Amino acid sequence: MVNMQDRLRDIETMVAAGEYFTINRARQYGKTTLLNLLEEKLAHEYTVLSISFEGMGNDAYVSETIFCQSICRLLSRMVYYKDKKDMPPLLAERLKLIKSEGTDMIGLSDLFSELCGQMKRPVILIIDEVDQASDKEVFLSFLGMLRDKYLQRKKLPTFQTVILASVYDIKNLKLKVRPQSEHQYNSPWNIACDFGIDMSFSAEDIAGMLEEYEQDYHTQMDVRGIAELIYDYTCGYPFLVSRLCKIADERISVRAGFSKSTAWTHSGIVEAVKELLAETNTLFDDMIKKTEDFPELKKTLYAILFRGEMIPYNSDYYVLNTGILFGFLKNKDGIVAVANRIFETRFYNLFLAEELLDSKIYKAGAMEKSLFVENGQLNMELVLEKFTEAFTDIYSGMDE
What we know:
two-stranded antiparallel ribbon, Rossmann fold, 4-stranded parallel β-sheet, 3 domains, 400 residues
C-alpha cells in the first residue's frame, strides 16, 4: 500500500473545519480505499456513518418516501453490523421504524437533527458511489435538504461534515428533473468546498511502497529507478500503479527467464506493461464504454493520437473537462494531452483496430477471399498490395 497518511491528515483538517465536500475522481482511482482509511482514522474522534449507494436499484428513487426509507435501511444496517455503542437505543429503534414505515425528506431531516443532537461526539456522514443517484430528481431534493441543514447549522444540530464520493463533480452537476425535459437545474451542493488533494501517486509514493516490499523480499531492486519507471508509464494513476506491481510480483517473477529479483528490473517492468496492455480489466472496459457514450471525446482522443493536434486547454469546453473527469486527458502546460502512456497506447491500439476493421483490406478479405489464394497458397504480393492501399486510404492527409 502507498502511504496515505499525509492525504488523510489534510482531509482530517477539512473535517475539523466542518467543511462539506465531494471526492470526485476517475474510476479505479482509490476513492473507496481512501474512504475506508479515513473512516478508521476519524472513528477515534467522531461518530462516522458510512454508506454507499452502490447496488441501490432504480426502485429506490421512485418516490421521496421510498428513497428516505432506503437511506434509513442503509444506516440501520451499518449501525447493526458496526455496533455503534454511542447510538442511543431509542434513536436506533426510531431508525428501524422509519426503515419499515418510511418518511418524507422533512422527516429524514428531523431524524438527522435528532441523531446529531443526541450523539456524544460530532457525526460525520460519508456516502460512496453517489453517481448511482446523480440523474434522479429525488437525489436533488436530498442534496437540497443537506444544504439547508448546513446553512442552519448554528440553529439546529447537524453533521460535522458530509463527504460524497463520485466520478462526477456533484457540486457542478446539472440534473434533468423530468423525463424528456430540457429544463435543468444546478445542483444545490454549491455549499461544498473544493477538494484539491492530489490522489495520484508520485514517484516518491511508489518508492515508499516498493521499499516496504523490498524489506519483505530482498530483491535488490533499484527502488528509485523502478519507481520512476512505473510513474513514467502511469503518471501515478493508482489502479495502473497497483496493477503493474501485481503483474510483476505474481506473473513476471514466475515466467521462464525471470525470477523474483529480475521481475523488478527495467525489462521485468516492460514485460508487465505488455501484459497489462493485453489484458481485459474493469478500467479498460470502462474506457471503451466511455468512448462509445461520448463520441466527441473519442474524436478528441483520436485527433491527439493520430493527427498530433495541439489542443489548447479551455475549462469552458465540456468535452475536455469530461476527458479530464474520466482520467483520460490532462492539462499539460496549457495543452491537452492523454493522461499517461498506458492510456495512450491502449487508445491507440483500439482506434487502430477499428480503422483496420473498416478498411479495404478487411472488406476485400471478407468478400473476396478467393482473390488472395492461388493454387491453395496465399498470394503475398496481392495481400501486400491491398494492405498498402488500405493504409494509404486510412492515413491520407494525416500528419506523420
